[in-house]
Design a protein that fits this description.
The protein is α/β, with parallel strands linked by helices. It has helices spanning 2-18, 59-71, 84-90, 105-110, 139-147, 161-167, 188-196, 207-216, 241-256, 259-268, and strands at residues 35-40, 49-50, 56-57, 74-79, 96-102, 111-113, 118-120, 122-127, 152-157, 180-185, 202-206, 220-223, 230-237, 279-280. The radius of gyration is 19 Å and the shape is globular. Bound molecules: arginine.
Length: 281
């Protein structure tokens, strides 16, 4: 059914393209002359967040800043809804989405991704008082507990692989949990607040942000089992070969010369000075 829908949507997109009803067709890079327009969604752990000084920080953002400089472009970063990132690059409002985005089969059909720059996984956040996962160390053990829950809701950020994991997603290869009611939120942080208010049982979110949230919010814990195997990459409009190849070369370079590791160390080990950027609306 999901497959059929994807095919239908792709077909409709193709038809509207032909008749010029949408902004598709010609790929322009950069979308705005002299600027690299990046769309992201905060807060997402160490990948992107707004600092106390109101500037935007994070691993994705620092990569964006270095890449823009290398391209001789001025960096413009916009903080928008997660699911709007995809339409934004598709309709030429932004060049690239940099937001801890996982490569999935269905997304790859509609948008282009760079090479992966980071491995990731979903994890489950529950209340500190929850003993259901005590001693559970494998995906199978965790999923057995999840599969036996009754009348429980689990939260996730709208449009994310966390939602696909809970609700099921054929292309992503997840059967989902028919016994669990998935509940979407604007951010994983709001989902966790709702869990603390007693409205949902748990929250599924990427492991990096899960750790950040758990470090900042009392009374919650992360179940220490990687539930999925994901690859992060940057996303752009299909056919934007110029940007895709420039970014792939850049990723290989910063991975190879230690720059990427140094950026990660700033955020995960607190080593070195973080660089913040102004956020545009
Ligand atoms: N990796 C997940 C996905 O691609 C979640 C990404 C959410 N990113 C964010 N900046 N809020 O669906």
């Amino acid at each position: 059914m999901k497959k059929l829908l994807t095919i239908l949507v792709t077909a409709i997109l193709a038809v509207t393209c032909v008749f010029g009803l949408t902004a598709c067709g010609e790929v322009k890079y950069p979308v705005e002359d002299g600027k690299l327009t990046v769309v992201t969604n905060c807060p997402f752990g160490n990948y992107e967040y707004i600092g106390e000084d109101g500037k935007i920080y994070g691993i994705d953002i620092e990569i964006a800043g270095l890449f823009a400089a290398e391209q001789g472009l001025e960096l413009v970063v916009k903080n928008i809804d997660f699911d709007a990132i995809f339409t934004s690059v598709d309709t030429g409002k932004a060049d690239v989405g940099m937001a801890g985005i996982t490569i999935t089969e269905s997304r790859s059909q509609v948008y282009d991704f760079t090479d992966t720059y980071c491995k990731a996984s979903q994890k489950l956040i529950v209340l500190e008082s929850n003993a259901d996962f005590n001693g559970k160390t494998t995906v199978q053990e965790v999923e057995t507990v999840l599969g036996a829950l009754t009348d429980k809701k689990i939260g996730y950020q709208i449009g994310t692989t966390g939602g696909m994991y809970i609700n099921g997603d054929e292309d992503f290869g997840f059967a989902g949990f028919s016994n669990i009611e998935g509940k979407g939120y604007d951010t994983a942080v709001t989902a966790v607040q709702d869990m603390k208010n007693g409205n949902i049982y748990g929250v599924v979110v990427d492991e990096g942000p899960a750790a950040t949230i758990a470090a900042n919010v009392d009374g919650i814990k992360v179940v220490d089992v990687k539930l999925t195997d994901e690859d992060y990459a940057f996303v752009m409009k299909k056919g934007n070969e110029k940007l895709q190849s420039a970014l792939n070369t850049f990723i290989a370079k910063i991975k190879g010369d230690g720059t990427y590791a140094a950026i990660e160390a700033k955020y995960y080990q607190g080593v070195g000075e973080k660089v913040g950027y102004t956020v545009s609306i």
